[in-house]
Design goal:
Elements lengths: L6 H27 L3 H27 L5 E7 L2 E8 L2 E6 L13 E7 L14 H12 L11 E4 L2 E4 L7
Parallel strand pairs: 1-4
Antiparallel strand pairs: 1-2, 2-3, 5-6
């Protein structure tokens, strides 16, 4: 397993893919309401792939002990690990966590969070493309590997659901 060479750039990349995953979630809901089912499906597929990539990177950082503290958060009835890495914090659903879970002694606190707000501050000007390329080069993690469907059909055509520049 390869350790990250630049933890700050890794965290910036995680932040960027997390923001885009949230945006894809919003677009999926909006397009579904508008009756644009194929576009909604595409947005949903991309959202899930980015969240899977985020969890994979967080797991790698956890394995190498790149965290200052871990908290357990209950958000809307679902448990999340909250990894604090320098000035960054990232949530990962406990039930999506594969492999060994943080030991109880590693959890600094547990709390229930009501009305969780997604934070509007931006920590980076990095593009999604730069973030994905960095994580692919740094760890060998490609979000196209986490697509639940590779193609989305629209009419008589089929479109690749992932990121062409990573193939």
């Amino acid at each position: 397993m390869k350790q990250p060479s630049d933890i700050e750039k890794t965290c910036e990349s995680l932040h960027k893919i997390n923001k885009h995953a949230k945006k894809y979630a919003e677009l999926a809901d909006e397009n579904y309401r508008r009756g644009k089912k194929a576009t909604a499906r595409l947005n949903s597929i991309k959202k899930k792939a980015l969240y899977s990539l985020k969890t994979k990177v967080l797991k790698r950082l956890y394995d190498f002990e790149y965290h200052d503290r871990i908290e357990l958060h209950d958000i809307n009835g679902r448990e999340y690990y909250c990894f604090n890495i320098e000035q960054w914090s990232f949530h990962a659903p406990v039930d999506d966590w594969s492999g060994s879970h943080p030991a109880k002694r590693e959890i600094s606190c547990s709390k229930s969070i009501e009305n969780f707000s997604k934070g509007t501050e931006s920590h980076t000007d990095m593009s999604l493309k730069a973030a994905l390329l960095y994580l692919n080069n740094e760890f060998g993690f490609n979000p196209n590997e986490y697509l639940e469907e590779e193609n989305v059909s629209y009419g008589h055509r089929s479109y690749f659901a992932g990121w062409d520049y990573l193939n």
